[in-house]
Amino acid sequence: MPKNVPKKTKTGGGVPKLDRFIRPGKETLYVTYAQAASFFSLPYYTMVKCAKEAKANIHIRKGVLVDMTILMNYMENELREKGD
Q1: What stretches of the chain adopt beta strand conformation (E)?
Q2: What pTM was estimated for this model as a whole?
């Protein structure tokens, strides 16, 4: 075996369990930036910027999930403030 080939390591199942972050009675929806952008019909990087401003990001390893409840509340409040 060549020296520069990394060894295979076993991980604990791959996908982390997010159930411990969900409190009873609190319904949450976690999506990727692309799914959130298609839901709101916005460009991808605009959605990234909005999610960061709303602090709705959840970093998991190298990926990021967006908490839709936080993002929707933020967008509703921003629309109310801009409408006044």
Answers
A1: 30-31, 57-60, 63-67
A2: 0.64
